[in-house]
TrEMBL record:
This is Fe2OG dioxygenase domain-containing protein. GO terms for biological process: cellular response to hypoxia. Its cofactor is L-ascorbate. It comes from the Bacteria. PANTHER family: EGL NINE HOMOLOG-RELATED, HIF PROLYL HYDROXYLASE, ISOFORM C.
Amino acid sequence: MQQTSFSLALNATSWNLDRVLDDLNEFGFAFIDHVYSPEYVTALADECISHLAEFRAAGIQNGVVSHIRSDHILWIDGQLPIAQQHIQTLHNLSQALNQAFYLGIKEVEAHFACYNAGEFYALHRDNPQQKNDRMISTVFYLHESWEDNLGGELRLQDKKGNWHIIQPLPNRLAIFQSDVLHEVLLSKQQRLSITAWLRSGNSIWNP
């Protein structure tokens, strides 16, 4: 694995990229706290909340209801300029991952996600049996505050078969291989985030 470094916008001093790369290499997941300035996180949350009426139920596709998830989402496009700054950060991260793991990541797709009280996402993989080109999954938490008893945690299995609970703390970015088994536990209050996938059609990485 090749070690590298790069500049990340807004709060780069909180990023220890070498640790992130080491954790991804050894365990298949990593997380970063205090990713952005508080001002940016507030602006991003405001942008998300102002569009909540446009969110759709993620578990309904082509009229078919899925019973493994109950969250609501809004895909991020050019009409959401504040969120686009986060997408650019993920593009920068992709370059470092390409250098370290030869992933060949070419694009980022992302959506806002809202888990209202009682909503969840059951165990799944974002890239089951490597049937799509999602290589790295990320979740950035943008709600204002969170307590341990509110649920909504990301529960995932690492490359060694051990299970971990990642609290959805505000201004935290979780990063994990897209073939990792994971779930979002039932939330007891509204939980806001951006879920994004770093995609490549020709990766040679064998995690």
